[in-house]
Amino acid sequence: MKATLHVLLLSVVSMMVTGDLHLSERGTGPGCLVGTRLAFDLNTTLEETKRLNNEFFDCPNPEPGVPCFFYSHVFKPFFIIEGTVEGESDRFLDSYTFKVVGGGRTRGSVRNYSHEEILNFNSLSDSESSRQTLVWTYDDAPDSFRLTKEGFLLMSNASNRVRWLCQRNSPCGDLTPVNLLDPDFFFIIEVSNRETASSPFCEHTLRFELHAHGFPLDPVRGLFFMQMTMTVIQTILICYIGHTCWRLRQKTVHTKKRDGLDEQDGNQFKAGDVLVKVGSMLHSCFLQLYCIIFRIVQNPMLDHVIMLVVLFDTSTLIAQTFQGVTVRTGWCLSAVDSCLLVFYVVEAVFKILVRGRTYFRKPWNVLDFFIVFMSLLEFTLSLVQSAGGFSSRQASTLFRVLKTLKGARVFRALRLLKAIRFFKGLQAILLTCLQSFRSMSSIIVLMFLFLFIFTVIFREMFNESDPEHFGNIFRTIFTLFQILTLDDWSLIYMTSRDNGAPHIIYFLSLYIVVELFTFLNLFIAVLADNFQLSIRKKRQCKSQKSPDVKEGETQSGEKAVEDLEMCQVEIEEEFHKEALRFASSDSKQSKRKIELISRHLQLLAAMDQYMQKYRSQACLLDNLVETFFT
Fold it and tell me: What does pTM read for this prediction?
């Protein structure tokens, strides 16, 4: 009797001690051993999580007694059959069901879910998972996985890798940060072998708490941030367009008053005149809009704004490389990235509208367009994943496909190259390096040819004296690349010398002289020569007085000025024609007089156009003179 009471007392004390982690554990059935229970093996789970993900992010706000895991990492739980009396434990090898039966944003707000909610959040049947309420899914599960009658996945030690999904209608979907830290969530997990076919004699049920942190930005909410940013940009553009149109309208009214033309009453027009007037006004509005976009693209302020955006984007990309920043502020940085993407898209669209096909003739524009396209592709992939309308198997398959395409995220780093466009010196260096590869191609071929020759020689002569470095062809190539950098070549010599091959020093010396002191220095000489040529060309361009020398550099600027002047002339002609139509509708002037007035206005417009060309040429000449003498 005393022994039985002692065993019961030890069991109660053990349950009280582990009460923080295990909410409840039960073992029922005739085959269950007395004093045993199902327990969560936290240490093995942490080790396996580190091994699978090659990293482990600590919890920013840990809760005592609650294990914490990063949301984006694969979660592979392990369980043991623990003896409450003797303290012995064995690995739990039976099949089991993994369910989320409760949860909350904070530990104090955790609640148990109803049976219907448990089905919605865990069942992998198509009727349940199509509601976009799944909390988790399997990761790399076998093709022949088993489900219970209610759609719960039967897991085992061979296939127990959990990937947190948190679809949009689930309790952990679309979480927002509370104090600029990434959102987190507390789960109540139930593990049971009650529904497995291999457990008719002993049924174990375990409930424990789990803390997940580092929830990412929901792509739909990221789309909302992009729409808000686009709304702000549209508001600024509308205000700018309205201000420009108002100034143009004031100029037109002043022109009419100067020429003695009064506005006519709109009721005096016929239906045909009204249609002509409306068509003319629409054409004039579209022409004005194009000229406004043209001014925005040609304005240096746009380049300054984009440069600031690129620098800010660069700082956010660098910040995301730090573990502490990724764990704590990844949600906010993703929101900022979505907003900055809008600026890149607007810039590309405006330049394509203004320049058309000529936009893709410059390599820097092609690079910018490629970077923007890859960023949009990355965002679209994540948006498709959370769009909904997929069954459980489709969602898991889509997740694995997107995981293989996750390499598209690395193209975000290419946004740093956009900064080169604003620095002429960096452009010259990069272009010179690219042009040098044509001259260095023959040198590279010779280097690889001699590398292959020396590889065969070292492999045949020293594979026995130093099999670690020359054991096979791939080790020999790696060793020769290492010697090319003069890294530990003396250790390679001493290893072969100690094993009876001291004559390796002659071959090492010959290889270093040929590859390093000859071909590599020749490689650097060609690069330096190309830099000297580029500097010489730049000086020749500055030393010429004639504007024809800088025709290639100023052609794009002159074409832009001419296009803008043509836009202004066309707008003025439209307004002059409209003014003549207003004046001639009710007046009794002769046709000859109207033709004279029209001819007079055309001559004035032509004189204005030639005056603007003269001023632009004079400005260009002043710049050339200033460049030459400075």
Answer: 0.66
